[in-house]
Description:
Layout: H1 10-28, H2 36-44
Helix pairs in contact: 1-2
Amino acid sequence: MPNNVPDREKPILEALTERRDRLISLKKDRSRSIRASDVTDIFDE
Length: 45
């Protein structure tokens, strides 16, 4: 995590990073197609 992120913004960065990682994981999983509901579920959390 970048050191220049203000403390009050770190939780936001962590949440966005987690979402990005989950979306990348969905994209890399070639065993099934990505459904719109898979993506919206991640953003609704």
